[in-house]
Structure formats: structure tokens, C-alpha cells
Write a structure and sequence with these properties.
Blueprint: E1 5-11, E2 15-22, E3 29-32, H1 36-49, E4 52-59, H2 66-84, E5 93-100, E6 103-110, E7 116-120, E8 127-128, E9 131-132, H3 135-147, E10 150-157, H4 161-180
Parallel strand pairs: 3-4, 7-10
Antiparallel strand pairs: 1-2, 2-4, 5-6, 6-10, 8-9
């Protein structure tokens, strides 16, 4: 499999973002989004997905974090779509259950070519520090729309909102790692009876 690396930029009146991904990386995050809690979550994706992420983001944070979080999801999704290519030889599906103390989340992803987010998470707080928990869905909606994946997210239990969100991002990283990994039995075949994804 050739190098699966992509860089995507997004420049709007609200944000200027550049994202580079290496799907076969060492689990490193470089750069910052300007949203500290989001950086913590991006680090979970990188570390648990064994994906290298390089983020350079400037957004209208004087208004709030919404545009930056959403646009990072969009840009990351575009970078994944580019890096994974035509999807030949990958597992395509990935899933993970991740606990963190009392919290437990399940994430299932399908690189189907069909965007769909199905999220069930009842966060126990509206904010974690300054980060609004409703932005979790905005991030993932941006990602699925542009990575063109089907993504099921279920926070199965949890009392601490930080733990709830962190289990989601860790499980997302693990599920991505499984889905984009090379399947030696597929040997470059398309993982679909349709012949394309």
C-alpha cells in the first residue's frame, strides 16, 4: 500500500485551517486548534488511532468555539477521504468499546462512501471548562459529511462529562485504526460487493 498521507486547507471568513494526516503514523499530534479541550481530544484520535495529525488553525474564537470545532471536523474528514483513497485493501469497518472509570462508549465506523452520523450521548454537563459539549456532535457531523463515512456513536454510561467525551474520542480513534488498516486477506481488493465505495 502506498503512503496514505494528505493535507487539506480550509479558508473562510470564520476560520483558516490546515490539516495533515498520515494514516500509517506513530500516533502523534502536532499543532493546536486554539480550543484546548479539542486539542486534548484530537490527541486521543492520534494516539489511539496510530495516526499522525498536524493541525494549524485560526478561528473566530472571540465569538465562540463553534466555527473552529465544526471546520476542523470538516477539514479532518476531507483529509481522511483523500488519504484513504479508493479504499482497496482496507478493513473498511471498525469498532471499539472504550471505558474511562465510570464512563463507557461504543463507536462503529464504516468507510461506506455514504455520510451518516447516528449519535446517542446524554452528557451530564453542558460545558467542560469553556468547551460546550454540544460541539462534539458538530465536530463529528463535519467529519462524516466530508470523510463520507457512516458513524455510530453511543455513550453507554457515564457520570463525568469529561470522561464521557473522552471515551467517545478514544473509541473513535480505535475504530478508525481498525477500519483503515490494511487487510492482508483482501490483497488490494475492494471491500464491497458493489465494486466501488
Amino acid at each position: 500500500m502506498s503512503a496514505r498521507i494528505a493535507t487539506v486547507s480550509r479558508d473562510t471568513n470564520e476560520t483558516q485551517i490546515s490539516v495533515s494526516v498520515n494514516l500509517d503514523g506513530e500516533g502523534r499530534l502536532a499543532g493546536q486548534s486554539g480550543v484546548p479541550f479539542l486539542d486534548h481530544m484530537l490527541d486521543q484520535i492520534a494516539r489511539h488511532g496510530m495516526i499522525d495529525l498536524d493541525i494549524n488553525a485560526k478561528g473566530d474564537l472571540h465569538i465562540d468555539d463553534h466555527h473552529t470545532v465544526e471546520d476542523l471536523g470538516i477539514t479532518l474528514g476531507q483529509a481522511f477521504a483523500d488519504a484513504v483513497g479508493d479504499k482497496r485493501g482496507i478493513y473498511r469497518y471498525g469498532h471499539a468499546y472504550v471505558p474511562l472509570d465510570e464512563a463507557l462508549s461504543r463507536v462503529v465506523v464504516d468507510f461506506s462512501g455514504r455520510p451518516g452520523l447516528y449519535m446517542n450521548a446524554d452528557f451530564t454537563r453542558d460545558t467542560i471548562g469553556r468547551f460546550e459539549t454540544q460541539l462534539v456532535a458538530e465536530f463529528f457531523q463535519g467529519f462524516v459529511n466530508h470523510a463520507r463515512v457512516t458513524l455510530h456513536i453511543d455513550n453507554l454510561k457515564g457520570l463525568n462529562a469529561h470522561h464521557q467525551v473522552e471515551t467517545i474520542f478514544k473509541a473513535f480513534g480505535r475504530a478508525l485504526r481498525m477500519a483503515v488498516s490494511e487487510d492482508p486477506r483482501m490483497a488490494g481488493q475492494m471491500p464491497s460487493t458493489k465494486g466501488s465505495l
